[in-house]
Amino acid sequence: MIQITQSKLTPFTGNIYNYMAVSGYTKRSGCPTDYMVQIQGSSRWYRVYNFCVSNSGTLFIKTKDNSFAVVNDYDLNA
Q: What is the pLDDT of residue 75?
């Protein structure tokens, strides 16, 4: 599990439908959310993505070392 040090709300301004399948679920790349986080040992802000294949989604970030680092939703206290 990734250790979150800070989080903030930064609205995603791109076209959200580029990340959605026809069925309404997200593509394998995930769908960007309005959250950005900083992780322990880094000063970079990472966009939080949602991967949804059922009614509940999994929040994750993409880092240099890990393309699917899971984030707990209770760590997003922005």
A: 86
